[in-house]
Design goal:
alpha+beta; seven-stranded mixed sheet; six-stranded antiparallel sheet; 20% strand
Amino acid sequence: MGEKLYKVEGMTCASCKSAVEKAIKKIDNVLIVESNFTDGRTVVEFKDELDDNKVVETVRNAGYSVKTSKLTLKVSDMTCASCAQSIEYVLKRGADFLDVSVNFGSGKVYVEFVEGRTDIREVRKLVEKAGYTPEKAEKEEESFDDTGLMKKLLVPAWIGVLLLLVLTFAPISESVSKPLMAIVSFPVAFIVGWPTVHKKTLAALKNGSINMETLISLGVVAAYSAGILSFFIDTPQFFMVSSMILFFHLLGQYLEEKAKGKASSAIKQLMELEADTARVIREGEEVEISLDEVVEGDMMVVKPGEKVPTDGKVVEGRSFVDESMVSGEPVPVEKNVGDEVVGATINQDGVLKVEATKVGDETFLSQVVKMVEKAQASKLPVQTLADSVTAKFVPGIIIISVVTFLAWFFFHTSLIEIVTFAETFIPWVDPTIGRLGLAVFAGVAVMVISCPCALGLATPTSVMVGTGKAAENGVLFRKGDALQSLQEVDTVVFDKTGTLTKGMPEVTDVESLDGDWDEVKVLKYAASVEKNSEHPLADAVVEKSRERGYELFETENFENHRGKGVEADIGGVEVLVGNKKLMADKSVEVSDETGGKVEELQKKGKTVFLLAYGSEIKGMLAVSDSIKEGTVEAVNFFHQKGLKTVVLTGDNYVVGRAVADKVGIDDVEAEVLPDRKSERIGELQREGRKVCMVGDGINDAPALTRADVGMSIGTGTDIAIESSDVVLVRGGLGSAVDAYKISESSMRNIKQNLGWAFGYNTLAIPAASLGLLHPIVAAGAMALSSITVVLNSLRLRRIKL
């Protein structure tokens, strides 16, 4: 089973999404299709294999298009036609291309592929695999600009509407104006409306589905047909109505697409951070190449003021690099030989030579963009109701419209009293237009005022803007539904080390408990054993001994006791470094006096190690980790929101309580081994609690996965943490507060959008069916309804964090 991503263009509403999904599902081997009409991302799950050409053709037949790219590559060392055939053979077998063509005469290779399916690097590798040397490459994106097309069509539509207005109010007889209006309105209603409305309607009907464009098409055709009918029977002409419906639809779609473009601006801004080119050393010379052509292992030269092209490691030079896009910190970071640098960060002063270690989709920036795109394509639980309504909306409206027409036509005398009464305060209501006129008036109004788009847009646009705003502030929602889940949380559980504290502990106390041992000896023996451990607290002990220049002992038979300590043999004698549990396990007696000293240090929030040499306590060390900036404020924020706070720690209760008291956390779960953290989360959930776990994403992975929402503290480029729902790239708990605020604002925004969309349709459809809304007014209201939802979603960009 596999999965492929396509960028489908031309979708404007939830009905378009349904049409695309329905068409693709008919392809053999396709299992699941999930499409997001706000950004066109369409994920297709399939078994065995799936031909991209088949998907592109199917989507095109449905009235939409798949974004593709074309690439031209110069290959100078082809010497014959068989060379061209060899390259073409390797290319066709090596990647999923839509089309491959190799021209021996011009020395060029032409390939076309679904956007994002492959890149220049992959094509170059395949040409090299065939035994030839690729040179200059040119990439061209094949994109259908729906917004640009609508903008162009709006001009003739507006000219046609103005001419119709002139003819309506001109002092000429109806026998002259009516034929002229029929002539003027035809190109507006049918020629201008063909590419964006009628063509999509026919494609949808061909595939056995109907969409928003179907309603507009039917409304335009019905109004124009009624106008033609007015030449033969005594009924009002609706030529102006047919053109105005089309014009308002185009105007609404254009403004909606522009607004949706702003909603997705976060990803565009992230992509714009990338450098366009890279200066690399090839065959001993500096050459400037496209970023797409950089390969792993390339030696890049980065001069002052330039962006680092891609992730890499400094191999020569020294400089300061602005990494604010990663850390949020404005102060540049010093970089020396051996240090890692992130693509798109800015070199400040010195010249750096950087070896490319990650390129293309593997870079930090690409991973961020992928996470944001995936979150924006997610479907929230709250969206289920809107989707179920939208799926039945268009056929339901067609039925209501037909029933409305028939009711006014056959029960005219019963319903005429409604419009007669309304005539006194609604200017466009006219009970004198006759049975057929009123039937067309009401039926068309119902058809064009209904707005499934507003319902379909209500959730996705808010998710898009919310997750984009989060990404701009160092919060990555790996799963979009975490936006909703976070608002259902009532308990926040924190890991201690590296989450509440900085994760950079240091030794504060070294004390001898034996007259024959001094502090130097205690620290040397402890560090000699701890040097074999990977625990941050062990690193602190080793670092302290290095600072003092101590030479450490050789050790044998090292053993780690999780949550208790470590042991090793030095000179044939067993040495233990750990807590009282380890001493008890090894039958080492801890005196009451020593126990008292340990407790005093623990009350200060320090972690205490006892050192036993040959089954006797010889000394102890205390390690302390300072509280992260913003931790106290974050805990206070969660309390203000009515959430319970808990700290889970492997330390004993006294240390955990001391840290909890410093930051104001409610409960302490102490001496919890790493594998028990997940179980404790489960126990809280069985108590009926909705839990958010905040941890480092590595040691806490099981607990993060078990929690209703897992938040991992990212460190620099360490963001690909599979176990979490939300990644806090900048590392502080202030980002956890930002995540909650964005979640809170997004859910409030979604509820407002859904309330507006349901409320609008609930009021508008009955009003139209009663003949109280002119079709032109109805078309304008429909366009305004969708725009209102998108504009309301854009308010999320102004969240104060």
